[in-house]
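User: Could you check the structure of this?
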Amino acid sequence: MYNVVSSDGFIARNDGSEDFIPDILWQNFLNLCREYGTLIMGRKTYDAIQNYDNEPLQLFEELPIRRIVISGNKDFHPKRAYVVVHSPEAALALAPDALVCSGPTLNKFLLKNGLVKKIILHEVPTSIGAGIKPFSTDGISLTPIDEVPELEGIQVREYRVEMTKLKRL
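Assistant: Sure, the predicted structure tokens are below.
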């Protein structure tokens, strides 16, 4: 699971704006997509990406990766060649080791159900005060991974995810 977060732990402002995320991180995201080969996203993330400027959108669309969008709407038809599934389980059945980049609803579901192995956070040095958290850590244990790549001006945090004993009962 991948998200960019503010220094105070938000993935977006309350209105959904991600204007605090520097453009330079787009290339890092594209590199992660290449590394994993498949990207799973929710429909709202798909919509957000489709509203990006032409250049970043084109760079994303030209990646030689599989793109899976999860949407509960049976009438949802993306503009481009995306695989559409109607549940997180269906997405992970197609690509169990995919990169997931999404918002709190999908993140929470995946974490709650023990479907995340690793979390990758790129923390930008900007505090936004209030906003949307990427997920809750209730019922999970995050173990920091020591050896992580460095990015100039960005704090990279990676965690192994384990369900707590309480959650397993």
